[in-house]
Every structure is written in structure tokens, then in C-alpha cells.
Amino acid sequence: MRIKDIMNTKPTRVSPTDPLKRLLCLASRREIRLLHVVDEKDKLLGVISSFDLLQTIVPFFLDANLAKALPESPQLIRMGYEEHAHKTAADFMNRKVVSLSPDDALIELEAAVAGRGFNALPVLDGEGRLIGEAGRREALIHVVMQCDCCREEDA
């Protein structure tokens, strides 16, 4: 089984100049795991995760000790957003990206994500263009389909 057999072929793309507001709106959708920052030729420049956005806007959510010391306040979150509202995808993206090839074996997906904290990785063609996204979710869907173990009445 190859990555091309399981990958999501419609990854979420953003431009390096897309504003924070757009990034937040896209990232808050349930099915989105990564925002892929691409240039006009669809070459991958970087990725943005929910963690990247949260750590900038509401860092106290990511530090348990700090979170206990601060009152829960929508105003603090709003202030964090306003402080960074002028920033763009280029400011948030991770440029050191681990990626997959469509011809990589499925086992390479697990090797790439294990121990790194990723749930999904971009899939690039031979020229560095974004063609998909693959992760553990796609692998699980493939396993379920192959074992034919879930029927509608089982859900």
C-alpha cells in the first residue's frame, strides 16, 4: 500500500500573505489538521498547525502553571488576537517540514509521524508541489475498509 492510495487529495492551502483571521477561520474547521502554505506554483513553503496558532495567541493555554494563575477571560484571548492580527501565514508557518512522497509505503507514514507529535504530513510531488496530505486518520480509514469490519448498523 502506497501513500497515494490513502492520501487526502484536497489539503487546505493558504498563501504566505493570508491574514491571521483567515487562518483561524480555516483552522477551526473540524476536518482541517494542517494549513499548507504554498506559493503561486503550489510549492510548499511551510505548514501551520492549530498548536502554532494557539501558542502565539493564547500561550497561557499551553502552560498549565500560567493557566492556573490567570483568570479565564475572553478579554485575554481577544487581546492576544489583536496583538497578532496584523500577522500573516508567513509569520506563523513552520519552514522545516517533514513530508511524504506519493510512492512512499504506508509504513513510512508511521515512521515519519511517530515521536514527532504530528498527526498528518504533506505529500509532495518530485518538484516539491503539494499534492495531498496523509495521516493516521487516512491509514485507519484504509484499515477499516480492508477488514470490512464496520457496517452502518455497527456505528
Q: Could you explain the architecture of this structure?
A:
The chain has 155 residues and is of the alpha+beta class. It has a single domain (3-154), classed as CBS-domain (Roll). It has helices spanning 3-6, 20-27, 50-57, 64-69, 74-84, 89-92, 106-113, 136-147, and strands spanning 13-14, 34-38, 44-49, 120-124, 130-135. The strands form two sheets. The chain has a three-stranded mixed β-sheet. A hairpin with a 5-residue loop joins strand 4 and strand 5. It is globular. The model has no long low-confidence stretch (mean pLDDT 87).
Report a brief summary of the structure.
The protein contains 8 helices and 5 strands, in the order αβαββαααααββα. The protein has helices at residues 3-6, 20-27, 50-57, 64-69, 74-84, 89-92, 106-113, 136-147; strands spanning 13-14, 34-38, 44-49, 120-124, 130-135.
Question: What secondary-structure arrangement, pairings included, does this model have?
Answer:
Layout: H1 3-6, E1 13-14, H2 20-27, E2 34-38, E3 44-49, H3 50-57, H4 64-69, H5 74-84, H6 89-92, H7 106-113, E4 120-124, E5 130-135, H8 136-147
Parallel strand pairs: 1-2
Antiparallel strand pairs: 2-3, 4-5
